[in-house]
Write a structure and sequence with these properties.
Helix content: 40-55%
CATH superfamily of the largest domain: Ribonuclease H-like superfamily/Ribonuclease H
CATH class of the largest domain: Alpha Beta
Bound molecules: zinc ion
Strand content: 5-15%
CATH architecture of the largest domain: 2-Layer Sandwich
Number of helices: 18
Order of helices and strands: HHHHHHHHHHHHHEEEHEHHEHEH
Radius of gyration: 29 Å
Distance between the termini: 75 Å
Largest sheet: 6 strands, mixed
């Protein structure tokens, strides 16, 4: 019974899931699952759920977000354990109003309206419910997951989790696959995505051994998407990567148990996540190296006009969200003049990082008093933005600052350069990772740049 009650609970809290949609269409298209009638010709499953709804009704409370999905008189939404329904008699003209219509535009309860409509008990209970300031129907944006720049199979898993399309036993059963819906580990709960990843005793034990346990605390009526969204809001980039890795490893362990009967330990799950991440990082560095070497020589660096200097700039985004920015100045004789690298803390996206590299280079070049400058960036977007439309939002703001600063250097150009001709700045920006703050090299380039500077020309 408890298991079916849980099913009923999911119908209540996850109205967007397929099984909920099917049940709703068939049995309670005009009302909430909490005030349905059994109906004629109920299926076996529906009959079970209907009986279990008594259990759900007794303990269910809707969590109020923006109030758009909750009907005032039809469902229990007040914080009262014995009777969560509105006690005031229903007004026939208002019987279909939603909880959202009791709120004012500034996300607070409209107390005057509440006093007009409801008895003191109801008003008291309603005003005790906090209204979240953020739109709680917001879902986790795929962009945020992708911005983590995870290995493909891991971002794919996180994406499926967030979209609610991981093939758990429950998900398969809702598509009429004849399958035992119990969790393969604890056998006592339904295997849903939230259960297998966060709530099952095994998963909980794994999380306890990590540094991100506090970020994945959740309840069964939350979706993975909500859990991830919260983690993205409260955790660092590195912590989010760790969460994604552990989820992937848990799902792996679950599959190996289900399909091959191979059992993994708590530490096995954690270690395979950590090892995979380390290997992947190494492979990325190797690929980067190969790419650099392979492309060098195809599009070579060109010196600026007589009397000008060329400033190659680039940015690197590190796993912890901080960035390295590098600028390398050479003259028209192709001679190395000066270079500077700096690490900037924060959580930056790649294109903003490229714009920050230009800001840094500009203020440095201005302080040095250079004129007749060509800035070469391998971000096509940045080069075009500086020469035309600054673009939207945050990136646009940084570009506006760049354009403003460019006015102080005369004459000046911002050009697009192919990556293969920008490798000195590229290598410098990456090398910044191991520096504590700023490095500057005059006349003699740092060791790690000497061969790259040569290769730029060939
Ligand atoms: Zn379990």
């Amino acid at each position: 019974m408890a298991m079916i009650a849980k099913q009923g609970w999911r119908l209540l809290t996850e109205a967007n899931k397929l099984v909920s949609a099917v049940m709703k269409a068939r049995y309670y298209s005009d009302s909430s699952v909490l005030n349905v009638k059994l109906g004629s010709n109920p299926s076996y499953v529906w009959r079970g759920i209907y009986q279990a709804l008594e259990v759900v009704r007794a303990g269910a409370r809707r969590k109020i977000g923006d109030g758009e999905d909750t009907m005032v008189w039809k469902v229990p939404w007040l914080p009262d354990d014995s009777h969560g329904f509105i006690a005031t008699d229903e007004y026939p003209q208002l019987k279909n109003i939603k909880v959202s219509s009791l709120m004012s535009a500034d996300k607070s309860w409209d107390v005057d309206l509440l006093n007009d409509l409801f008895c003191d008990r109801d008003v008291d209970l309603i005003t005790r419910i906090p209204i979240p300031l953020r739109d709680t129907r917001d879902s986790c944006s795929v962009e945020e997951v992708m911005a983590l720049q995870l290995p493909n199979k891991i971002s794919n898993l996180v994406w499926r989790l967030c979209k609610g399309c991981l093939p758990t036993a429950m998900a398969l059963a809702s598509k009429h696959v004849d399958i035992d819906v119990r969790c393969p580990w604890c056998h006592s709960e339904i295997e849903t995505d939230v259960h297998i990843m966060f709530l099952c005793d095994f998963a909980r034990t794994v999380w306890l051994t990590t540094r991100v346990n506090h970020l994945v605390q959740c309840t069964m009526n939350e979706s993975p998407c909500q859990i991830f969204t919260r983690a993205f809001e409260n955790g660092t980039r590195e912590q989010c990567v760790e969460i994604a890795m552990i989820c992937w490893s848990l799902w792996n362990r679950r599959n190996r148990w289900v399909w091959e009967r191979i059992n993994g330990s708590v530490f096995g799950v954690r270690h395979s996540a950590i090892n995979f991440l380390a290997e992947w990082k190494e492979a990325q560095v190797r690929d980067e190296d190969r790419r650099l070497r392979g492309e060098l020589g195809r599009r070579v660096w060109c010196p600026p006009k007589e009397g000008w200097v060329k400033i190659n700039i680039d940015a690197a985004v590190f796993l912890d969200g901080s960035i390295g920015v590098g600028a390398v100045i050479r003259d028209s004789q192709t001679k190395f003049v000066i270079a500077r690298g700096r690490k900037i803390a924060g959580a930056w996206r790649p294109r903003e990082a490229e714009a920050m590299a230009l800001i840094e280079a500009l203020s440095w070049v201005m302080a040095k008093g250079y004129n007749h400058c060509v800035f070469d960036t391998d971000s096509y977007e940045l080069a075009t933005a500086c020469n035309g439309r600054p673009g939207e939002a945050y990136f646009g703001n940084i570009v506006m600052d760049c354009i403003h600063m460019l006015k102080h250097i005369c004459p000046v150009l911002v050009d697009f350069a192919y990556r293969s001709s920008n490798s000195a700045a590229h290598v410098l920006a990456r090398a910044v990772y191991s520096m504590s703050d700023t490095g500057e090299w005059v006349v003699t380039p740092p060791k790690f740049l000497t061969h790259v500077l040569d290769l730029d020309l060939n």
